[in-house]
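Can anyone check this?
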Amino acid sequence: AAAVNLGIFPDSNAPALAYAAPAPAVPSMASSSDTNRISSINAMLPVKDQASIAPRQTSQTNWQPPRTVQVAYSRPPVQASAHSTIAVFQPKIWLQLGSGGDTSELASRFQRMKARSPDLFEGIKPYVAQSGDGSRLVIGPFRGASDAELFAEDLESVGVSPMKWTNSQADRIAPLTAE
């Protein structure tokens, strides 16, 4: 309906213009056989008034050039590309408290640290970061390097020597189930 009435075509990305112009009059060159054929068709039609279907005569003097008509146009919605939905990797800052291959040993190490300073470790959750070179016991992530350094100083005051660590995209970090 938009294509017919407004000149907007659904497959087109460019606006289209519709023209409103009367059809140019063409002089009738119909032969008498054409007229007889049309009149025989008109006779078959169930119309009460045959005068209403008589051919209209138009004169060449009424012809006007087509006028350009503005059409309302809106751009089609842009489809979201697959690239815009891919999450961008953001490395995070962590503090490494230990490393090793056995996650149960890392869990017991964290429990010993927490038992020595329960106030300092209140609300701190341990994580295991697994990468190609082994497993790490980490805490965090921290909002920035200065926050990590402040907490590292607090840990050093109770005898824990943490190391600042930033994860890579290949690292898999999961909460440590401390028993």
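Reply from J.R.: I decoded it. The two ends are 69 Å apart (CA to CA).
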